[in-house]
Amino acid sequence: MTSKGRDAGDTQDPLFCQEAEEVYRNPTELKMSQIVLPCHANHCGELSVGQLLKWMDSTACLSAERHAGCSCITASVDDIHFEHTIGVGKVVNIIAKVNRAFTSSMEVGILVNCEDLYTDRQWKVCHAFATFVARRTEAGKVQLKQVFPRTQMEQMEYSLAAERRRMRLIHAETITDLLSSSTAQLGECQEYQDAVPAERTRVESVELVLPPHANHQVSTFGGQIMAWMENVATIAASRLCNAHSTLRSIDMFHFRGPSHIGDRLVLKAIVNNTFKHSMEVGVCVEAYQGGEPLRHINSAFMTFEVLGGDGKQCTLPRIRPEPVDGKRRYLEAVARKKIRLDRKYIISCHHTEVPVSVPWDPSNQIYLSCNNVSALKLMDTRNNWVLTFEKNKVEMHVSVPAEQTFHLLSDLRRRKEWDRHYEECEVITQVDEEDTLYRVAAPSVSKGGKGQDFILLASRRKPCDARDPYLIALRSVTLPTHLPTEDYTRGEVLCAGFTILEESSTVTKITYYNQATPGVLPYISTDIAGLSSSFSSTFSACSLFLEGNKDSLAALPPSAL
Ligand code: COA
Ligand code: ADP
Fold first, then answer.
1. Residue bearing the CA closest to ligand 1, atom 45
2. What's the average model confidence in pLDDT over 386-409?
């Protein structure tokens, strides 16, 4: 296990506001600390991930119940990436808090640290976001009280939680669409001489749900089901090369339906595909009672690797899938791997590590759009701006309803009516109601010089509730059909856009942001980025444009234009 010292980077996760802990503690925050004993560990002396998932689920559930004031169930757990394994004798510290409540569901942020008591060192193991739902009562669905973020960190998580929720609720559909488009391109499975038959890794196991596996409402704990799933997946992974395998990541868990005491759970796992150093294991859980038909409770995909004695990843053998379903899963595993890599690459908190212009591809649209909006939300909530970035922010109030303002500003083609830097603006693709690709051309800043052009992804979002603003986020992307030309210098925008907040039915606050990294400043049009001296006159023109069009029927959503 790699261990790192107790420094700001390790212990201060964006999830939690450590510096404010002394003066303020989030009322939903709960902590759990456990010493890892041999009974929690596998034969290699490492904490079993299943046990960790149970502790994470229990801490998060208690945090959700503290906010809800009633019993809650796990609806889903977003992707988890485990950065380290945890040895026997170490202490596991888990902190959970409710980031945001929606109607009957809540997002709970979970942070897991490992502590070495003898060296006083701590390091981060993983963080996760789980959704808990307040159990329905006889009166129907529970309406949860809102969360009121107090600190800047809480505000940030509150704001990002709405975007994560959007991703979660379309997750299954997104994956199905991406799989059907990408597996069609992958063709047939390749046959390898020395491949291991997938059948050799198949596991089937049954569990009887007993009272210790369930909560006081007789529902099986989500963490217990995850632990059983991890158990069969580990067996399948280890069978592949008859060696101990280490779980690196889990794709989103979604609990499709509840399970109760007395249920028999049938867990099935098999290696779907292997890559050079990692393999995907799929697990499916079904429940039954007596002679009733099987109920599908959960399916998950886990990525394992095998470490050699030197701690390096071993090269894994190829797999020979079974006919029909095996072959389909083999190809889907290749597609899921690409999706995971795209997602990891795009959804990164470290903006400096992501190139300014990310290639646009229909297969990464959903993540790029989420990243675009999240980046703007981060700018919106980061008051203590770190001056490693050039920044710009302008606020103004207009007497135009927020929704109308949103529609008027959403269509970038109309921006030339108030911004002389938008000399030309064409829609390249109207991807869907929320995302549009534009090419924008700006005039030359020097006489006789070249103009600049930009390929921009504009992502729009309506508020999740009355406390959210409308958002229009802009970022550069690259498109093979729109490569830079000799006539224009290609400009790039890392993150820019508007937040539009309804202050009253007639007064709207508009905030314009722009962010540019120092490394790319020479290539950024200062004017389009809004850094020039003409900035304030541009925004007076914007205000006049909005007020002049406040009753205009032309302010239709771009999809309707
Ligand atoms: N991820 C996150 N939240 C989800 C979700 C998912 N995949 N699917 C539904 N939800 C949320 C909805 O957004 C909604 O939130 P809101 O009230 O804040 O808007 C809430 O769950 C309830 O949705 P609703 O449409 O009323 O119910 P549903 O029929 O979709 O059921 C569950 C959702 C989670 C209640 C249901 O799937 C279930 O009972 N699952 C099993 C949960 C369980 O027992 N877990 C423990 C382990 S078995
Ligand atoms: P899909 O077949 O689309 O992957 P499922 O929900 O049926 O979705 O299964 C999820 C995963 O569980 C599969 O990818 C596979 O790895 C594993 N699995 C499903 N059925 C079996 C089975 N009968 N035996 C072993 N593993 C299975």
1. 74
2. 78
